[in-house]
Amino acid sequence: MSTPADFSLTYDTAGRTASLTGDWTAVELGDAGARLLEEMRHERGFALDLTQIGRCDTAGAYAIVRASEARANPGGLKAPKRTERLLELVGHALKAEPVPEPAIRPVEDLFSRLGGGLHNVSRDAYDTMAFVGHLIVVIGRVIADPRRIRWAPIFSLAERAGIDAIPIVAITTFFIGAVIGFLGANELSQFGAQVFAVELIGVAVMREFNIVITAVLLAGRSASSFAAEIGSMKMNQEIDAMRVMGVDPFEALVLPRFLALLITIPLLTFVATLAGLAGGLIVSWLVLDLSPAFFLQRIVENVSVSQFWIAMSKAPVMAVVIAGIGCRQGMEVGGDVESLGRRVTAAVVHAIFSIILIDALFALLFMELKI
What we know:
alpha/beta; Transcription Regulator spoIIAA; five-stranded mixed beta sheet; 12 helices
């Protein structure tokens, strides 16, 4: 049961003593702290006896510390160990330096940050050009002497980036095709033109979604993987060791990843096309009651094969962008894990952004060419 905080003053041969009783907590403190402080100011030289108090929290400890600071001659302090520790904690907190108010940043800081951002952009552009130049030199060296090509890592990376990615690419594009079919059936049925959902599925899947979804998935899988692998090798100074041994890291690490993606992205785009059309076919069959034979016939008759080749023409560009961003970010990793995490994240974000931008540029180009 709680007891209100209180105190009593006694005088004996040992001196004057203030004996505290009750619970010195925020709930039961009341005006006891203020009265104790007033007594200490008028009658200095009291000793404090805290052996009779019940509970004590920071509010009670603060009142006791303030009262004890008002004594000219402390005399002594009797308290349980737990109360002493609490009083020491509160006392140290009261003596701590106040937190300074944050200074208002002048306008010059804004321009300084803008200048720093522009400097970083220019430096990244310079590093990117240096990366591309080094890669072009390596490609020229390999063309001059094809025996320098490392076929084993190329096929190994192609398997990891291509064959292992077939299930996720097929499942994703299957559902994309199904979603396009649902949207086409829902919207076109309002005009009695639901049969044209077949053409919508064919053009959307064969021209855009097959390559875009494939590239985005590879950006998440391969770009991050390339950045993490090369970055961890750089953290462990394996790349420095390769240079010491006379091995060019671009020839041993970067070029095989470029060639692996150049091989696998067209294959995955073809798989994505089949899976997307399968998703649209099933939705058209179940929702619009269009038979698979009718669906395929309309695809062959009304959707030109050039739509598929438009998507395939984007594949090499997407492969170069994904591999380039992943490998370059891996080469920029510093010596700590935090740098590795930042570069892997940047690889995925930059790759996905570049894919969307490149697809938009291709769309504008083909629109101007009326293809």
